[in-house]
Amino acid sequence: xxxxxxxxxxxxxxxxxxxxxxxxxxxxxxxxxxxxxxxxxxxxxxxxxxxxxxxxxxxxxxxxxxxxxxxxxxxxxxxxxxxxxxxxxxxxxxxxxxxxxxxxxxxxxxxxxxxxxxxxxxxxxxxxxxxxxxxxxxxxxxxxxxxxxxxxxxxxxxxxxxxxxxxxxxxxxxxxxxxxxxxxxxxxxxxxxxxxxxxxxxxxxxxxxxxxxxxxxxxxxxxxx
Amino acid sequence: xxxxxxxxxxxxxxxxxxxxxxxxxxxxxxxxxxxxxxxxxxxxxxxxxxxxxxxxxxxxxxxxxxxxxxxxxxxxxxxxxxxxxxxxxxxxxxxxxxxxxxxxxxxxxxxxxxxxxxxxxxxxxxxxxxxxxxxxxxxxxxxxxxxxxxxxxxxxxxxxxxxxxxxxxxxxxxxxxxxxxxxxxxxxxxxxxxxxxxxxxxxxxxxxxxxxxxxxxxxxxxxxx
Lengths: 225, 225
Description:
The structure is a homodimer. Chain A is an alpha/beta fold. Chain A has a single domain, classed as Rossmann fold. In chain A, 41% of the residues lie in helices and 17% in strands. Chain A has 8 helices and 7 strands; from the N terminus they run H-E-H-E-H-E-H-E-E-H-H-E-H-E-H. In chain A, helix 1 runs parallel beside helix 4. Chains A and B meet through helix 1 and helix 5 of A and helix 1 and helix 5 of B.
């Protein structure tokens, strides 16, 4: 019975997500969905990203948490539209929450929309939010076996961002093994290693976002679709 | 409808957990349920704990993961009974999984039974496993606001173990704020700070387990019950 309900809930979510995806495409909005364990550095990466962008960039953020609007407060300082989604106990964002939050978010045409999911390496992987790309973050403080233990999200993400690389000298973390494990689950996964503290690798992340934006706009402009 | 099913599932889980709790009490088994984000150091803490115990101690471990039996392999090296529970996608352990796993676990009277939950700071908090104590681990690499963002588990845990304190000089983590946040959610929560790498604070953890064992056995021996 439980599985039947889960299937029904996911089916309903998929319908709403498909409508969102169409809406994003019609407006040229590139939506990326950031997923990781609590404390892997999603908000810090977004802070640094917003700080690096020209103030007139078309960028907005939806940030999810079970409780508190701490993250929205941290991110609002940069002057871009930011809304908190507080799930009140639910362990993931779903498409309906995104749909509702969009009503209150000033979102320009051709924006880059960051969705920061609830900190949870498991459940958010199952909920399509209409995003163009899922991005998984893994901190070097967490352990290199995580892609094997939590394959769902590594399978679905197009990019793995290995965060907090400044801690590498201080932790027992085998970055080569982490990358190999991610590729065992998902051979085509792209990988960026960075530290928001030192800035190492950050340019690669900005370049990745730029390239994805160009690729997305080329796709939706293509007459074949 | 979804909430009704969740309630039913949790009700069914509570019944199985109550039976387990009774069974543990009858046999003097102290069961502790370790919950944290992925990579906070549950397995490492257990490795160090098993290494520190006399080889004839009555101790056993059930360790949960979505995929892989890596943790059971890591923990079996110490010579105590260890079984892996592989959930195959489910984001938490439930009481029925514990009940089934116990069939295959040689468990002496008056044992200390460690249950290492799936790495997830959200969902495992809702599932009673019949344990005497829930223990939440938080690594200093994760951020001091986590108790406020994930209040469920901090509310239910009797102990918070702040792990990886050797990293404190290398991360922006305010340990005083983390403890204050945990106590805002749960004023009576006990707190131990430790590093499995340096061994700092580890004695306190071993002492806590010993004290809990004595307290538990005194409670179940009390004629008033």
